[in-house]
């Protein structure tokens, strides 16, 4: 499933790849959310994504999210966002990311989102580097600091930046909130969703 509705938004699933292997990730025990199977047979190109979107006018926003890290396919995000911006200039566009794109590409990619993306939601999920390593299990060294640096760049360039944390048992959400606010970002707690067996 490439495009799927969740509440009043349209979500775009463009990759199943991710640089993290979070202990709490839904992918560990589900094939999708909102009744949709999100494991992709192949990664869609921009034209296929746009065809799946159709008319986005009924939705409050379009979100690049899915079952992987969307900014691993930066060119597709930019191409789809630019096409939507041309046709639907008032449409709100958001990217949900783990904040590691600059580390992946070896450059600051945030300026490439300016004028295309209205909001960025960045998964923080821990107030310290040690806890981030334990919970998010990144494949890239220096990931926690990279998330913070990405957030700083986004706050300077994108209209709305939110850091999020999953409400995991024992996680200091207030420390996460203080960190987010110190970076100039908003903060939002996401629910911890377990499967039927309590994973």
**Cα shape:** globular
Count of separate DSSP helical elements: 6
CA-CA gap between termini: 24 Å
| Sheet of most strands | 7 strands, mixed
A few lines on this structure:
By secondary structure, this protein is an alpha/beta fold. The chain is built from 6 helices and 9 strands; from the N terminus they run ββββαβαβαβααβαβ.
Notes on the structure:
The structure is a single chain. This protein is an alpha/beta fold and 199 residues long. It has a single domain, classed as Aldolase class I (TIM Barrel, Alpha-Beta Barrel), CATH 3.20.20.70. The protein contains 6 helices and 9 strands, in the order E-E-E-E-H-E-H-E-H-E-H-H-E-H-E. The strands form 2 sheets. It has a 7-stranded mixed β-sheet with strand order 1-2-5-6-7-8-9. Strands 3-4 form a two-stranded antiparallel ribbon. Strand 6, helix 3 and strand 7 (119-123) form a beta-alpha-beta unit. The longest helix has 15 residues, at 143-157. The radius of gyration is 16 Å and the shape is globular.
Keywords:
single chain; 199 residues; alpha/beta; TIM Barrel; 7-stranded mixed beta sheet; two-stranded antiparallel sheet; 6 helices
């Amino acid at each position: 499933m490439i495009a799927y509705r969740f509440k009043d938004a349209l979500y775009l699933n463009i990759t199943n790849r991710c640089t993290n292997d979070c202990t709490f990730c839904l992918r560990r025990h589900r094939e999708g959310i909102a009744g949709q199977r999100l494991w992709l047979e192949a990664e869609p190109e921009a034209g296929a994504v746009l065809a799946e979107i159709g008319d986005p006018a009924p939705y409050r926003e379009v979100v690049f999210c899915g079952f992987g890290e969307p900014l691993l396919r930066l060119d597709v995000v930019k191409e789809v966002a630019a096409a939507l911006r041309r046709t639907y200039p008032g449409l709100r566009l958001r990217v949900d990311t783990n904040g590691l794109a600059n580390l992946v590409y070896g450059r600051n990619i945030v300026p490439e989102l300016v004028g295309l993306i209205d909001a960025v939601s960045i998964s923080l999920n821990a107030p310290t580097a040690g806890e981030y390593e334990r919970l998010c299990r990144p494949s890239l060294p220096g990931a926690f600091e990279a998330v913070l640096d990405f957030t700083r760049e986004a706050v300077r360039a994108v209209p709305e930046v939110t850091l999020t944390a999953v409400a995991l048992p024992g996680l200091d959400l207030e420390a996460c909130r203080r960190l987010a606010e110190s970076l100039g970002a908003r903060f939002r707690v996401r629910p911890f969703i377990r499967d039927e067996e309590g994973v």
